[in-house]
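Handout, section 4.2: multi-component inputs.
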Amino acid sequence: MEVVISGDTLCQEGQSIERPPRIGMHATLPPSAPESYAAHATDLTKVYGTGDTRVVALDAVTVGFVRSRFTAIMGPSGSGKSTLMHCMAGLDSLSFGSVRLGDTEIGSLNDRQLTRLRRDRIGFVFQAFNLLPTLSAVENITLPMDIAGRKPDRAWLESIVQTVGLADRLDHRPGQLSGGQQQRVAVARALAGRPDIVFADEPTGNLDSRSGAEILEFLRGSTSALGQTVVMVTHDPVAASYADRVVFLADGRIVDELHAPTAEAVLERMARLTPAHQV
Amino acid sequence: MFRTALRNVLAHKARLLMTMVAVLLGVAFVVGTLVFTDTVGNAYKERYLTTLRNVSVQVTPPFDQESGEPGTAGEDTLRRLQRLPGVASVTGSVKGFAAVAAKDGRPLAEDKVSMAGNYFPQADGKDDRHPLITGRAPTGPDEVLVDTSTADQGGYKVGDTVRLAIDGPVLHKKLVGIVRTDNTSGSGGTAVFFDNATAQNLLLKPGQYDGFSLNAERGASEQRLATEARDLLPKDSEISTGAQLREQQRAEAAEGTDGLGQVLLVFAAIALFVGIFVIGNTFTMLVTQRSQEVALMRAVGAERRQVTRSVLIEAALLGLSAGAAGFLLGIGVAMAMRQLFASTGSGVPDGPLVVAPGTVLVSFLVGVVVTMLAACLPARRAASVPPVAALSTLHTPPPARSLRRRNALGVALIVIGVLGVVFAASSGETGRTIVLFPSALLLIGIIVVTPALSGPAIALAGPLLRRFGVPGTLALGNARRNPRRTASTASALMIGLSMVTGLTVVAVSATTSLHQRAENTVTADFEISSRKSDYLPASVHDALAKSTAVTSLSPRRQSVVRMGDNELNLTGVDARSIGDLLDPSFASGSLAALGAGGGKNLLIDTTTADTYGLAMGRRVPVVYGDGSRDTLRIGGIYHNDEFLPTTMMPLATLQPHLKEIEDTSVLVHTKDGDGETVRRSLQRALDQNPLIRLRNTDDLADSAGGGAITLLLNMLYGLLAMAVVIAVLGVVNTLAMSVFERTREIGMLRAVGLQPEQTRRMIHLESVLISLFGALLGIGAGIFLGWAAGRMVSDSIQGYEMVVPWGRIAAALAGAALVGVVAGLWPARRAARLNVLTALKAD
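Output:
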C-alpha cells in the first residue's frame, strides 16, 4: 500500500481544511490557464482510517495534467502515487479537495456517474490482467464502447490498431497473444474511445524491456501524434524518461518535478528523494 | 496433515458452506426416509393398540358356505363365552358399512374407510375399543356416535342430526357422543357406532355378532382360553390369541413399510448422486484456487500422498459436520414426508416419531463416505500440482486435458444406453425388469459428454444473449470458459429434470389416455352407482327419471343367464336412450341393433366373443333366471372397454324375467352437462343419499386409475424436489466460485465502465444459461425415457398413447430459468458490490 503514517499535526478533519495552502508547491507548477488542463487536482487529500489507524495517503496535493502531454508520476513505494492516480481517475473517493476532469468536478459525482465518466472519458492501462480472456482482441479494444452501447469510430479504430501493430491478431484471444501484445491491446482499448485522459498504472511492470519500450513508444506517440493526454504511474526511471514531464511524490506530497527528463536525471532525483524518505 | 486440513476447513468455511449444505440435504433425505419408515412402521404396528389392548382371544365364526357371507353367532354363544373360567369380559362385535354425509349434505370420505359398528358397553358402561371423548353412549335406534375424524370433516357436534345411509334410504340419527377409534386413524375415513341392537338390525341380523373378543382375568392363560373357546364355537371358527394378533399386525406393518422405505431410499440415492456433483465441483474449484498453496507445501517437502490425504481429511471433516446437521434436518424431513403422505390420504396412521439408533450412525456414515467419494478426483488432481508452481507469480490454470477420451467413453455409454432402452421398450412387459440399467447408462453417458456438448449448445444461445449487450456477451463467454464446471453444474440439474420429465410424460400420457377413452365411450353426463354394494335399488332409476334436469337415462340392469354349460352376465339397457349415453367402438354391427330384430339382438364385447367363441349373427339359446328359454342373436361386437358393460341387450326383453331389480349403475344425460350445479340438483333428486355416487367422465377416469396416477406423480415431484434443491445449490456454488475467481476481471470491467447493474445482469445471465442448459438436457433425456417407459406400460393401460405435456415442460423450463435467477442472486450481488480498487488488487 502506498501510504504514509502521518507524523503531522493533522489529527482532526476540521483542522486540515483550515490549513494554509502550500503556496510553494504551486509556485513550481508551470503557469498555465486552467482550461488547458485535461485533469486538475486542488488540495487533493486522501485519508484512510481514523484514530490510531489514521493514514494520510495524499496530503493536499495540487497538480494539473496539461492536454496532449505525457506525464509520469514517480515516487518511492508508499509515496501515494497510485492513490493520486486512483483519485483522479474516479476509482477512489477524495477525503478533501477537488478534482476536475475537463470541466467536470468529479468529487460531486455518485458511483453511477463516476462509472459512466470512466467509461466515456477515461482510458485505463493496468500492470496486469488487463484483458478479458473470453473476448477476442478487437472485442477487448471496443469493450468500453460496447458497454456504453456506442458504435466505435471505424477509421479511428483502424488507425489505432495500425499504430499498435495488431491488425493481423484482432481475432485472437488474449491467451493466444504474448504479454507485450496483450499490453498493446490494452493500450489500444484505452485509446479507442478518444478519452479525455489515459491513466496507465505501471504499464510495463510485467513486460520484458523490449516489449516495455514498445508500449512506452505507443503512449508517447499517442500524445505527440494523436494529441492524447497520458498520465503514467511508474517506479522505473527508464519508463519515466519517455514522458514530457515527471512529477515526484514523497509522503503524499509533490516534492519535485522535471521537464523533458532523461533516465539519468530521473534516477538522480529519485536517489536524492529516497534517503530523505528513509530517514 | 490433519492440522492443515482442519485449518483449511476453517479458512474456507464460507466457500465450503454450500458444499456442506449439499451433503447435508442428501443426508437429511436419507435420515428422513429412515425415520419416516420407522415411524410409519411403528404407527402401523401400534395402529390397533386401543382395539387390541384388552383382547386376550379373538373369535370369528366361519364363513357361511352357502350364502358366501361372513359367519355370525348369536347371544347364546356370547353368554357361553362369558361363563368360561378366566374370562373377565366378552365384547361382541358388529361391523359394517355406512356412508356418512357432512352436516351441509355433501358426501364424506368417498374413496376411504366408511365403517359402522356397535357400541358394546361393558359392566362399567364403556366400550374400550372406542373410548368416548365427549357425550354418552347411544341408547335406542335413533342415536349414534361418530369418531373424531367424521366429526372434524363433517362439522358435527353432539346434538346434531347425522345423515347416513347403510344400504338404502337416508337415515337421520341424533349424535350423542364422539369417540376415538383406531379404524380411521390418519386415513381421513369415517366411522359411526350404534347401540348394540340397532347395529345388529342395521348391519347384520338381529341378535347376531360377527365375532367376539375375550378379555382374560389377570393371570389366566390366553392359550388355554383359546382352546376352551374352540369347544363352544362352530367348527372352522377362527380363533387367535392377543399375542398372535399383535404379531400378525407387526408382520403386516413390516411388509407394507419395507417396500415404501426402499422406494424412498432410491430417491434419497438420487439426491445424494446429485450431491456428489456439487461436492466434487466445489473441491475441484477449491483445489484449483489453492494450487499455489499446495505447490508450496510440495516445495517444502510434502509428499503427493500427503496432499491427497490432506484434501480427503478435509472432506471427511466436512462430511462429519454435514452428517450431524443432516441428521437434525432429517427429522424435519421425516415430519414433512408424513405431511406429504397424509395429504394424499394414503392412510398412514398417526404415531410418534421413531428415531432408531442405527439411523444416527447411517447419517454420519453417509455424510463422510459421500463427501470423501466426491473429493477423490479433486484430491488426486491437487497432488499433481508440481512444486515449481509455487515459484511462479502468475496464476497459470492447469492445462485442460483433452476431452477426446472422455467423449468417446460418453458416446459409447449413450449408444449402449439408448440401444438397451429401445430393446427394453420393444420387449414390452419383460423390459420393465431390465430398463433401469440402460437408463442409468444413458444418463451417465450424457453426463460424461456434457462438457463437450456445453460449448456448442451454449453458443446456440449466442444470438439471443447478445441482445443483452456486453453483459450477455460476457455471460456467454464465461459459461463456455470452463466446460467441465459448467457441465457438472448442469448435470446436477439434468438428473433431477430427466426424472421429473420422464415421470410426467408417462403419468400425463396415462391419465390423458384414460380421460380420452372415458370421454369417447361414455357420452352420458353422469354415471350413478352405489358406494357400498354392487347394486342400486330400482328407486334410484325412478327418482332420476322424474328429475327435470335429466333428458335421457338408462340403467345398467344385471341378470345372469345360462348359455349351454356357461353362465353369462347380461346387461339390460334402454334401447331408445342408450345411443345418448354410450358410444362403444364396434368391430361389427352397431347400437342400432338393440332397437331392431324384435328385441332379440344381443351386443357383446370382443373379450366375451373370444371367450365363448361367439361370432356376429350367431343365434344363442339362453335360459333366464326365471327358467324361461329364449334365443338371442349376436347383433354386434364392440371393443372391450372398462367403461362399458361386457354385454348389452334391450331392457324390455330382459325385464319380464327378472326376480329382483339390480342396477350396477344408471347413466343419465342432462340438459346442462356435467357441472357442479347439475350434480347438486341430481343429488337433491336422490335425497342427498351419501351412499349414492355420481361420477362424470373425469371422475370415472380418475376412479379407473387416473386419480391414483396423478396422486403418485405429485408425491414423486415432492420426493424429487430434494434432488432439484441440491442441484440449485450447485448452481449457486459454481457462480459464487466464478465470481470469486474473476474478482480482478470484474474489477477491471468496473474500472472501464461496467455499471453495477450490468455486472449483476452478467452473472444472472450466466446462471440462467447454465440452468437452462441442464434443464434442456434433462428434458430431452426425460422425454426419451418417458417414451420408453410408456412403451412398457402400454400393455396394461388400454389405448395408451404418448402425450408430450408441452405445457408442463414449458413450466419446467420457466422453473429452470427462475432457478437460474434465484441461484444467481447472491453471487450477482457480491459481484456488483465489489470495490473496484480492492478487486483490481486481488490475486
